Structure formats: structure tokens, C-alpha cells
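Recall the central idea of this unit: under ordinary conditions, the amino acid sequence of a chain determines the structure it adopts. In this exercise we apply that idea directly, starting from the sequence alone.
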Amino acid sequence: MTNEESVSESLIGSAVRVLMRVAFAFEPLAPTAITVLMNQQLHRFKEAGAIGEYKTHTKRLGKYHYRIEIDLDLTGMQAVHLLGNLFPKQLSRFRRWFHD
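Accordingly, the structure predicted from this sequence is:
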């Protein structure tokens, strides 16, 4: 092992430690970031007509534990498409009743 390898390993190790401390320091802000990201994605779905109105709320339950609530207003066909995408195998036997 040369000095260059040990110096680079030392630098990488200290950089990882600093990044971990920074990540842990901002963890309580994660619910806000999660809500913003969810709203952006849901807004795209709304513009495409896949969903109607929506509300999101994220609550921090503990360190790295969150509750994400999504309230969607859907028409019948939007609900069928959403359920078909979430549970394709479970709804395959009912496909003749849920066709477009």
C-alpha cells in the first residue's frame, strides 16, 4: 500500500463521515421535501387527466418513519385505471367488467 492510496482512502472516509452528518442533520426536513415531490408528480397526473383533485400530507412519525396521506378525487374510469395499475394480477379475472 502506498502513501497515495492511504491518503485517498482517508479523504474518502472523512468525506463520507461529513456527508452522513449532513444527511442526518437535514432528516427532519424530509416531510416537506416528500410533500413537494409528491405534489409535483400528482400535478403531472392531473394535467394528463389521470386523476382529479388531490391533497397530500406527510407527517414524521420518528427518525426515518413517515406517514404519507394522499387524498384523490377520481371518476369511475380513473379509479379503474388506477386499480388496474396497482393490482394487475388481482383484477385480471374481472377484466371483462372493467374494460374501456
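The longest strand covers residues 54-62.
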